[in-house]
Write a structure and sequence with these properties.
single chain; alpha/beta; Rossmann fold; Immunoglobulin-like; 15 helices; 29% strand
Length: 609
């Protein structure tokens, strides 16, 4: 297809009328004069006149041609298929969603295979990749582009092409994009449709087109760890995970062991994975989903802690049934000596339980200990008396009003079989928050709840459990056979949660300033900064706290957003303009002017006399 780089300058071709007008206006019109001798010269004159007219017409044509060539040179025409012209910039998305799918190569493999056979008639080709930053991978001919494209692999970073609009990244991209550039955006367009980047580029380049690659389909995504059983040395356990999408099976490796097949007990978006008996201490689990979807979000690296006993300290002036329940299982609960409320400093068990039955002298230290990773068990009445501890459970309160109660339930079938025989007629009204977990309820009303407080938990009783209570309902409650078992199980469960690592999702803002380390690399982040890190186990801060970076959930949604993008590479290529003929036409115009000048000089000597 014929095209002009400067179409407005093509109006210069109209200047060809100027020499024609001059030629017509300056034509000589000889007046006839009779002369006898002329009769003999008439034949010679007619021959000379014909030569003069032909020479004059040739000069006119050369002058017109020179003006046409000069005007076209300024307009810089090109013709598709004749020579190579301009610059083609291929901007390729190499974020995680472009990576392998199950047993296939994925969207990026489609890009590699297509570029290996593509014929691109441009003077210069540029290959640019975009993941968490923009990189100019290659500038050169088709062979160089093909060689570089063959080595492209998807990164483990979430996102899409619109990340290239960030200031620093856009500067890198614009170094290879100018007014003569054609740009093709290549992506699966699942995280964004590339509109923001296309809008920015359209004002600065010749054309912007989009090529959508990859096929949509189902995908299983690991969303994180919800909870785990109370892991006891030598006993099997289980993990409860958030998993969306269909998964065929999974493999589990522990430490340096080989992966073995495991069963996923699925219930909607939740899954339960059985764990074999483990020794006491830390273990690293590697769970790999097997599905036909994206590989990026199939691996979970999780450190788990298997504990023999849980340290527990009770602050009270007299024994209680709760303390007795803890002491009854010395194999799993390390109940330390009781502390009197008047003691100046309460010994705080690391990663353990503190039961506060009465007021504390150092509630600030206890509050700090809880937030850093402790479980505080107390009553709502005690919290309301201590404003420092009350901040741990903001929004939780118990009023003087009472509501109808009912049978006691915990959600555990083996415990509820016995505990539901106890029926409390009335219970206090407890106001809770969305983060509250109900551990024990009477009918539909909460009786004991758990509230997260930083890295720790606060377990709150709406109805204090004391040995000196004269209420018949209280007596029924504490004497229920399953009640001590429920207390010990609750303590083990919530202190066990303290050992589960924090979980942050890649691509999302981090809740606090942090320094992450992994495999000799260090990543410093400010609060609310986007986490651009590959999924897996990282170490957090100076104390090497475990942090699990989860795969980005949006990255695994295999559904494109750009419906108007081309699905064939040939269709996405801009209309080729061929080579730029501007310089050649300018040289041709100068050559024509030189020839015209030579002929005009000869004609002046030949006909001037």
């Amino acid at each position: 297809m014929f095209s002009l780089l400067n179409p407005l300058l093509a109006w210069g071709v109209a200047a060809v009328a100027v020499p024609i007008l001059i030629h017509l206006l300056l034509r000589q019109r000889p007046r006839p004069r009779p002369w006898a001798a002329m009769r003999w010269l008439q034949a010679a004159m007619q021959a000379a006149q014909r030569r003069y007219k032909l020479t004059n017409l040739l000069l006119l044509l050369l002058r017109c041609l020179a003006l046409i060539l000069l005007a076209l040179a300024l307009a810089r025409p090109s013709l598709a298929g004749f020579g190579r012209g301009g610059r083609l910039v291929l901007v390729i998305d190499t974020t995680a969603s472009m990576g392998p799918l199950g047993g296939s190569g994925g969207a990026l493999a489609q890009v590699r295979n297509t570029l290996a056979d593509a014929e691109l008639g441009y003077q210069e080709l540029v290959l640019v990749t975009v993941d968490h930053r923009v990189q100019v991978r290659e500038r050169g001919d088709l062979a160089a582009i093909r060689a570089n494209a063959a080595s492209l692999v998807a990164s483990a970073m979430p996102g899409g092409l619109n990340r290239a609009t960030l200031d620093d990244e856009l500067l890198t991209l614009m170094e290879v994009c100018d007014g003569e550039s054609d740009v093709v955006l290549i992506s699966d367009f699942r995280q964004d449709d590339g509109t923001s980047l296309a809008t920015v580029l359209q004002e600065r380049v010749r054309s912007v087109r989009r090529w959508r690659v990859g096929a949509d389909g189902p995908n299983a995504i690991i969303g994180g760890v919800l909870d785990s059983d109370d892991l006891v040395p030598g006993m099997p356990g289980s993990l409860r995970l958030a998993i969306t999408g269909p998964s065929e099976s999974a493999q589990l490796a522990i430490g340096a062991g080989l992966p073995v097949p495991v069963t996923l007990a699925r219930s909607e978006d939740r899954a339960r994975v059985s764990l074999p008996p483990l020794d006491s201490g830390e273990h690293l689990l590697r769970l790999q989903l097997i599905d036909k979807g994206l590989n990026y979000d199939d691996l979970l690296e999780l450190p788990i802690h298997v504990r023999s006993t849980v340290p527990a300290v009770v602050v009270a002036s007299a024994p209680s049934r709760l303390e007795a329940a803890l002491e009854a299982d010395s194999a799993r609960i390390d109940r330390r000596p009781r502390v009197h409320p008047s003691d100046a400093a309460v010994p705080l068990p690391a990663g353990g339980l503190l039961v506060a039955r009465e007021g504390l002298n150092d509630s600030k230290r206890v509050a700090s200990w809880t937030r850093k990773g402790g479980v505080l068990w107390t009553s709502a009445e005690q919290l309301q008396r201590d404003p420092v501890l009350a901040e741990l459970a903001a929004g939780i309160s118990v009023s003087d009003e009472a509501l109808p109660g009912g049978p006691l339930t915990t959600g555990s079938e083996d415990i509820d079989t016995s505990l539901s025989r106890v029926n409390l007629e009335q219970v206090p009204v407890m106001l809770t928050t969305p983060a509250t977990e109900v551990l024990l309820q009477a009918g539909d009303n909460p009786l004991v709840i758990a509230v997260p407080a930083g890295r720790g938990w606060v377990i709150i009783e709406a109805l204090p459990i004391e040995t000196d209570s004269d209420a018949a309902e209280q007596a029924s409650l504490v004497n229920a056979g399953a009640f001590p078992l429920w207390i010990r199980r609750t303590v083990r469960t919530y202190t066990g949660r303290l050992h589960l690592p924090r979980q942050w999702q890649a691509g999302m803002p981090v809740p606090e300033a942090a320094t992450l380390r992994r495999d000799g690399r260090e990543l410093r982040l400010e609060a609310e900064e986007q986490l651009m890190a590959e999924p897996g186990l990282w170490r957090l801060g100076d104390h090497d706290e475990a942090l699990v970076v989860l795969p980005n959930a949006a990255e695994g949604l295999l559904q494109h957003l750009a419906d108007d993008a081309d699905t064939e590479f040939a269709e996405s290529l801009p209309e080729g303009r061929g080579a730029d003929w501007g310089i050649g036409l300018l040289l041709a115009a100068l050559a024509v002017l030189l020839i015209e000048g030579t002929i005009a000089a000869w004609a002046g000597r030949a006909y001037g006399s």
